[in-house]
């Protein structure tokens, strides 16, 4: 093949040398030169992982993409193409080195990158499945600052170009290839100066692939548009102006495809790569030392560096070779200082962006009515369950009764079975019985106490044998009563106070029953003059009722807890959804800021939270009649504010988790969740107290 094409090993070596020299000769760099370059990367160094065991992805890489060209970025899977592209669009930062994109540093004020000057198609589909094609275009178009009519115009053109189905079809109902084309069209939509396409032709048939390339060639014709494209189909990069072959964090070659093929005397790029692979397998140690002796430049040797991976679907490389030194940092020109001002697209809050984000969030909710019904219905279900099952006063609380006045016979002990009402003990028990207490009769005080110790009863009441007579004497004589009557007019109560709630409830019932009983006895015996001498008299409560129920007491805490934690969950879910499958990446590259995304989420989640709050309050106060003594307006406001606190709480946690995530993935979850748990626990304690 080489002979046929008239190339000899010597001519190949000399041509290769010339190319390399020309490529890495000292250049006289000026700002004007840089401005002619769409992308310029110098001494890029990027690593992942901890310092102790770094995974070096870019290792002093230099890349030059002239304006108006198609640049094919090729390399084995996992060699760092996506990482490099992320750095170019300003989504990742280099550890060291410099990147200039369209005359500015990505991410800096005034660079316009990220922003509408760059169109980015990530490797993932990165689209909202619930949106139609037109809605997808509207969202990305508005993000790029286009008007609706401009978007519709482009939509028509792109539908035809990419042979897409009706604009009303939902993305989730499209085939994988169609979804990729919609993703590609979204990147083309705003007609950006720089298009960065990460594997746009995966899953696209050869005919359509050709028409996509024709379009790419067409849009770069006037020299104003630049395209960087990664692909696993090597042959299609034949139409690229330059291809860059990445390996071990550097470029092995950065050359036009025709020159590369001529250099190796081969007809296809695939053959070139196969040849390179074979050379690598044979070991280029010897060749590199020859080159070194000719040029006098010692090669950067990386003997143990191993390359393995695939180039596309057909070609695979697995070789051990010396990496020929293709970069010479001393000869790489310095980049000019960053220009101030310029074509600034950097804004904190762009109304158009906010419109796009809020519209997108509400549209997503509308398309996911089931999820939204669940989100709004969940707190309602919680409050219904609470009102139905929690908070009612317990009934059927058992009390052990020893009534020595009644010869301890079972039937006489239980008031409902016909107690002797001439006995005051029985009269008291009748009042107590009204308060839904169940009596367990016992013969002796020891048996009753034993029942309490075994948990069969919550308390034991013991009436002395002459309780009625002693009590009457005590009422009649007042302070002149003798010690005997004083002692035997007391009923003895022993309580199980292990459950504070039940213990206090029983004590309250005993107290109220005794009050009613005392009134009845005094009136019945005509001791009205003694009424004033009752030791205790509960007046009508200032707030609440004489018998407040536990539901009223617990309801505010429960309502606030439900709203707070559901707001946390709601915000967390929305944030996770936003990060889903490169969508956040894509939105951020289109120029939307993190603050705008956050604000958009706060606005939409706030509306949902208001819906939740209103529904919960309607069920609590209107349906289940929970007592509300105060102003319902203030109750609603305070509940909404609690929900807002929950949202802010999650946003802060999310940002902390993200910050930790960027530093150390593993630690993030430990710290973030630990922080969440600690705070939830503290909050719970606060609410409970
Ligand atoms: N956030 C990250 N944290 C740690 N390692 C990462 C991260 N992102 C990528 N990597 C690693 O960096 C290397 C380069 O990944 P990258 O996605 O840039 O490769 P690629 O060339 O685009 O691969 P492909 O062609 O398969 O898409 C891979 O080994 C990958 O596992």
Describe the structure in your own words.
With 689 residues, the protein is an alpha/beta fold. The chain has three domains: 9-117 and 192-331, P-loop containing nucleotide triphosphate hydrolases (Rossmann fold), CATH 3.40.50; 351-388 and 549-688, no CATH class; 397-533, D-Maltodextrin-Binding Protein, domain 2 (3-Layer(aba) Sandwich), CATH 3.40.190. Helices cover 50% and strands 14% of the residues. It has 23 helices and 15 strands. The strands form four sheets. The protein has a six-stranded mixed sheet with strand order 5-6-7-3-8-9, sandwiched between helices. The protein has a four-stranded mixed sheet with strand order 13-12-14-15, with helices on both faces. A three-stranded antiparallel sheet has the order 2-1-4. Helix 19 runs parallel beside helix 22 and helix 21 runs antiparallel to helix 22. The protein is elongated and about 125 Å long. Mean pLDDT is 76; it is low at 1-30, 284-292, 297-346 and 661-674. Adenosine-5'-triphosphate (ATP) is lined by residues 48, 55, 57, 75, 77-83, 123.
Nearest-integer average pLDDT: 76
User: Span from first to last CA?
Assistant: 87 Å
Q: Which CATH architecture of the largest domain would you pick?
A: 3-Layer(aba) Sandwich
What does the overall shape look like?
elongated
Query: Within the largest sheet, what's the order of strands?
Result: 5-6-7-3-8-9
CATH superfamily of the largest domain: P-loop containing nucleotide triphosphate hydrolases
Strand content: 5-15%
Instruction: Compute the CA-based radius of gyration.
Output: 41 Å
| CATH topology label of the largest domain | Rossmann fold
Structural class: alpha/beta
């Amino acid at each position: 093949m080489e002979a046929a094409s008239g190339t000899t090993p010597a001519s190949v070596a000399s041509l290769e040398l010339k190319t390399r020299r020309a490529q890495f000769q000292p250049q006289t760099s000026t700002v004007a030169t840089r401005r002619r370059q769409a992308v310029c990367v110098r001494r890029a160094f990027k690593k992942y992982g901890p310092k102790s065991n770094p995974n070096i992805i870019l290792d002093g890489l230099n890349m030059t993409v002239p304006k108006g060209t198609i640049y094919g970025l090729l390399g084995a899977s996992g060699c760092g193409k996506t990482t490099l592209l992320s750095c170019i669009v300003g989504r990742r930062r280099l550890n060291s080195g410099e990147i200039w994109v369209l005359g500015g540093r990505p991410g800096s004020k005034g660079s316009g990158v990220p922003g509408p000057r760059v169109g980015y198609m990530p490797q993932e589909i990165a689209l909202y499945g619930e949106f139609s094609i037109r809605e997808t275009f509207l969202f990305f178009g508005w993000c790029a600052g286009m008007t609706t009519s401009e978007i519709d115009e482009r939509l028509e053109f792109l539908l035809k170009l990419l042979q897409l189905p009706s604009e009303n079809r939902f993305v989730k109902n499209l085939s994988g290839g169609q979804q990729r084309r919609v993703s590609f069209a979204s990147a083309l939509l705003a007609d950006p100066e720089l298009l960065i396409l990460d594997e746009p032709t995966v899953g696209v048939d050869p005919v359509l692939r050709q028409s996509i390339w024709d379009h790419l060639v067409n849009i770069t014709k006037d020299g104003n548009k630049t395209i960087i494209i990664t692909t696993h189909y090597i042959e299609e990069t034949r139409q690229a102006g330059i291809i860059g072959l990445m390996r071990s964090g550097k470029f092995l070659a950065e050359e036009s495809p025709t020159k590369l093929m001529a250099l190796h005397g081969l007809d296809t790029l695939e053959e070139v790569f196969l040849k390179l692979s074979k050379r690598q397998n044979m070991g280029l140690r010897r060749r590199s030392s020859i080159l070194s002796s000719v040029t006098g430049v010692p090669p950067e040797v990386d003997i143990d560096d191993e390359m393995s991976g695939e180039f596309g679907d057909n070609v695979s490389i697995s070789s051990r070779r010396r990496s020929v030194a293709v970069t010479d940092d001393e000869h790489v020109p310095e980049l000019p200082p960053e220009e101030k001002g310029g074509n600034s697209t950097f804004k904190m809050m762009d109304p158009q962006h906010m419109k796009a984000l809020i519209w997108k969030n509400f549209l997503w909710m509308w398309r996911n009515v089931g999820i939204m019904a669940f989100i709004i219905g969940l707190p309602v279900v919680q409050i219904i369950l609470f009102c139905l099952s929690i908070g009612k006063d317990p009934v059927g609380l058992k009390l052990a009764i020893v009534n020595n006045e009644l010869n301890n016979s079972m039937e006489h002990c239980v008031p409902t079975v016909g107690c002797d009402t001439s006995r005051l003990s029985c009269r008291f028990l009748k009042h107590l019985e009204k308060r839904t207490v169940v009596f367990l009769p016992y013969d002796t005080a020891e048996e009753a106490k034993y029942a309490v110790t075994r948990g069969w009863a919550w308390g034991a009441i013991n009436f002395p044998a002459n309780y009625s007579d002693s009590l009457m004497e005590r009422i009649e004589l007042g302070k002149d009563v003798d010690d005997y009557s004083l002692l035997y007019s007391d009923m003895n109560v022993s309580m199980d106070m292990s459950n504070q709630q039940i213990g206090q409830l029983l004590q309250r019932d005993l107290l109220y029953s005794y009050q009613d009983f005392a009134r009845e006895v005094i009136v019945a015996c005509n001791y009205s003059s003694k009424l004033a001498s009752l030791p205790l008299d509960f007046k009508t409560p200032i707030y609440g009722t004489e018998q407040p129920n536990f539901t009223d007491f617990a309801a505010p805490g429960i309502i606030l807890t439900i709203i707070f934690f559901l707001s946390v969950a709601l915000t967390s879910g929305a944030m996770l959804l936003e990060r889903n499958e490169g969508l956040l990446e894509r939105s951020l590259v289109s120029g939307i800021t993190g603050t705008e995304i956050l604000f958009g989420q706060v606005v939409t989640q706030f509306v949902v939270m208001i819906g939740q709050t209103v529904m919960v309050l309607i069920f609590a106060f209107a349906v289940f009649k929970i007592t509300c003594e105060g102003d319902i307006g203030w109750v609603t406001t305070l509940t909404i504010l609690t929900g807002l606190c929950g949202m802010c709480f999650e946003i802060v946690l999310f940002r902390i988790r993200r910050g930790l995530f960027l530093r150390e993935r593993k630690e993030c979850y430990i710290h973030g969740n630990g922080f969440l748990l600690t705070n939830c626990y503290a909050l719970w304690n606060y609410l409970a107290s």
